[in-house]
Amino acid sequence: MSVGDHMFRPFGEAARRGRRSMANGVIMRLSGQTAGCLLAAATCGLVAAVAAIAPGAAALPASSVLVDFGADAGPHPGEMSASAALVRPAEDRRAMELCAAGEEDASLTLTAPNGVWDMSAHEAIFVDMRNPGPADAVVHGIVANPGASGYQDSCRGVLVLKSGEQGTLRVRLVRRPADPGFEPFKPFLRYAKNINVRDGTVDVSRIERITITIDDPALGQAVEVERITAAGEGTSEAPAFLPFVDEFGQYVHADWPGKVYAAADFAARRAEELAEMADWPGPADWNEYGGWAAGPTLEATGFFYPTKHEGKWWLVDPEGRLFWSYGPTGVGFGGWTPISDREHWFRELPDRDSPLGQFYGEGRGARDRYYRGKSYQTFDFANTNLYRKYGPDYAQAVSELSHLRLRSWGFNTIANWSDGKVYLLQRTPYTVAIHFGGPWLQGIPDAFDPLFRQTVRERMERERGRSAGDPWCIGYFVQNELWWGYWDDGQAVALSALRAPGSAAKQVFVADLRERYETIGALNESWGTDHESWEALLESGEAPDREREQVAQDCGEFGLRFCERYFSIVREEVKRVAPDNLYLGCRFHGHIDLDLIKIAARYCDVISYNVYGRQPGGRLNRYLGVIDKPFIVGEFGVGSDPRQTPFRGDELSVDPQERPRELTRYVERAFRHPLMVGAHFFQYRDQPITGRSDGEAVLRGFVNTTDTPHLELIQANRKAAYELYERRAASE
């Protein structure tokens, strides 16, 4: 395999042996030139960029030989230790053979003869090796400092070696930058609490050990390690942290599979992905809509509808096949980030007069953090990279590619927040996000204001002749994560109305109170308030003490009345325009009182609930045996990729392998949950490393800002989703 060859790998031994209805073998075969970083195997252990150099390829730079098993005089390591492996000289005595003693990862660790190697003068470590066996081998390399633990204080690489092939594993020595501390970034970023510059980086002057691992081997599988060298030009100086974002919107001080180093890399990425997807065309038992072609046939109405089948809720697709909706939100194009007052974060932004100048913008209306209440300049790295990768007409190319990607990755739905340019191609079922203006209370529209119905109607009218009546349209999410409060009976809505003088909701609530109490004095006595008159109450912006029993009761009764009005009006307006498409609710989140859910169940075709956490049952199990109605998880997700951002939450050093584990854990439980008819992943594309205007900077997508797929996440998803219907049908 020559310099620049790129290989992907399926998720593990089950895939290599063809079990679980998956394709066999290594799944990437097409070559392409890059700037020295390979897009390599997609395994749970994959955590760094790789390169492969075969005999006959370009010669290595001037190098220092660290270990040479083919030379009698050395050099040799200080110590060798093995885990789940046998280590012995190869038959020709010119290499050391690492042989798996079982089916656990087989590892060989070599330590520096004098305690540490000083690699300050070099850019990377290269391990020459050969695969003598009949099966492909996936080999990881870890270069670590003393005391390295997990991903911290170490750099990693991976190489896929075909049977009989020789190659060279490359591990780039990523220099640790000076630690800037988190305080300079705190005003700009939500959720982040720390910064970590040690994950995926090393002190190059103190390299203690090199570990070589055969990933997921068969018993007896082996590789022969011949020589280890340090090569390329490096420096002992720790780089400055700023600027930390490169011209492609990527984190500067890290390396990972598929990182883009030059604009020329984009062409190779395109070719690699098309070849990879050719080996993974999608589940064989799905029909055109992504329904269960191999399953039972129910009534076909030409549209999606919910039904209960053999004790579980399902959707049924237009052809009458059972359907479980699974897909990412935000399938589309860009993702801009503010640049004002932090231009020094960015290494290189394009000339505004260049073709890329179109991706600058103006922003306002940030709801949180530094830019709240300000106007600011923005730049869109994601759209810029799509322009670089696919050309000026990238919108059409990306729209068509998105459908191929989703099916290949195991998705059958384009979920909320997605772009009409993509979903209106009618190749993948989709949902539509319905949002509108109009009069609002705190975090929720005023359903008693006549303008509420008008604004819902006007917004739905825009779907007439577009998504309304489209068989590919599953239905409509109307609004998102409204503030119903976490108290009983929607008391929070009533308190919001009381704090809104002049609002229609307050006028209705006060009219209810006048009918109940007759005099303002009676209300004051019951509520512990001192309003001079009913008119004074209407003009007041204060709310009473919710802890008083009668206040809670009165507010709760109004909250339920408000809820009934909200859902009834929305349903009427959705069905007026799109009677054959589904009303999917308002995407509840957090704790919602049971009585509110019961009201929503009377009007929603499917109840939507955004449920993050380890598994959906933590929120939805309370409705089992209580509400016999289908639920759909409008959003769930996994953590940010710790390789591509230094920003952290409470946990300072994060294992990159946890992301695919999180995904697998969640979806396997979701597929089995009897109330659920779908789950939607937030989101398709990573947010910018520097965040949105409100500071949310979540790198949890299936593609990053350079439009490069996160293959370890994709492979975990394929492993689960290619068996979606078998898993759901078989679950108790």
Brief rundown of the structure:
This protein is of the alpha+beta class. Helices cover 23% and strands 19% of the residues.
Q: Round the mean pLDDT to the nearest integer and report it.
A: 90
Could you tell me the radius of gyration in angstroms? 29 Å
Biggest sheet descriptor: 6 strands, antiparallel
Shape verdict: globular
Structural class: alpha+beta
Strand percentage lies at 15-25%
Total helical segments: 16
Total number of strands:
27
Low-pLDDT regions: 1-60
CA-CA gap between termini: 48 Å
- Give the helix proportion (percent range): 10-25%
Describe the fold and architecture.
By secondary structure, the protein is an alpha+beta fold. The protein is built from 16 helices and 27 strands. Strands 1, 3, 4, 6, 9 and 12 form a six-stranded antiparallel sheet that branches. The chain has a five-stranded antiparallel sheet with strand order 2-5-11-7-8, with no helix packed on it. The protein has a five-stranded parallel sheet with strand order 16-27-25-24-23. A hairpin with a 6-residue loop joins strand 3 (85-89) and strand 4. The longest helix has 29 residues, at 549-577. The chain is globular. Mean pLDDT is 90; it is low at 1-60.
Topology, pairings included?
Elements: H1 13-16, E1 63-68, E2 80-83, E3 85-89, E4 96-100, E5 106-111, E6 124-130, E7 137-149, E8 152-161, E9 166-172, E10 194-195, E11 209-214, E12 222-231, H2 265-278, E13 305-309, E14 312-316, E15 322-323, E16 325-328, E17 336-338, E18 360-363, E19 376-380, H3 381-390, H4 394-409, H5 420-423, E20 430-434, H6 450-461, E21 473-478, H7 491-498, H8 504-517, H9 520-527, H10 534-539, H11 549-577, E22 582-583, E23 588-589, H12 594-603, E24 607-610, H13 617-620, E25 631-636, E26 647-648, H14 658-672, E27 676-681, H15 711-721, H16 724-730
Parallel strand pairs: 16-27, 20-21, 21-22, 23-24, 24-25, 25-27
Antiparallel strand pairs: 1-12, 2-5, 3-4, 4-12, 5-11, 6-9, 6-12, 7-8, 7-11, 10-26, 13-14, 14-15, 17-19, 18-19
Helix pairs in contact: 3-4, 6-11, 7-11, 11-12, 14-15
